[in-house]
């Protein structure tokens, strides 16, 4: 009878150990999953900067739910560049941080289409923000 209790206890300990090990492996893979590659993702939305501005002025909370953390493609004219900071400004309303630090050839006034992750709308500066932006062809 004593041997039977020991065997039952060993089974319980082994079962608990296996459950903990499976949970630990699952947690590890959840925490250290691969990063998104925005450049290869399909754009969820394709809009002009003016249309983005219009949607946010009508209903900013709904627009945030729609665009936040999504890959979007945006059309606009380059109004300024800061290649030292790897960023460009479109239509004086959208700031895009470029993924590729070697990107060159941006001319102020030139129309461009970029794809990136929508980070949000800055109320203070009144501008939209993209990061991991790449030039769309």
Automatic annotation (TrEMBL):
It comes from the Bacteria. The chain crosses the membrane at residues 12-31. This is tRNA_anti-like. Keywords: Membrane, Transmembrane, Transmembrane helix.
């Amino acid at each position: 009878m004593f041997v039977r209790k020991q065997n039952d206890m060993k089974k319980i300990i082994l079962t608990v150990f296996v459950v903990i090990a499976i949970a630990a492996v699952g947690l590890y893979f959840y925490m250290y999953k691969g990063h998104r590659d925005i450049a290869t993702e399909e754009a969820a939305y394709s809009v002009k900067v003016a249309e983005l501005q219009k949607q946010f002025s009508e209903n900013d909370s709904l627009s945030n739910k729609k665009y936040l953390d999504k890959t979007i493609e945006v059309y606009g004219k380059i109004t300024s560049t800061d290649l030292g900071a790897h960023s460009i400004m479109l239509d004086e309303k959208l700031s895009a941080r470029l993924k590729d630090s070697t990107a060159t050839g941006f001319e102020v006034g030139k129309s461009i289409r970029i794809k990136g992750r929508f980070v949000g709308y800055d109320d203070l500066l009144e501008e939209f923000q993209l990061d991991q932006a790449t030039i769309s062809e």
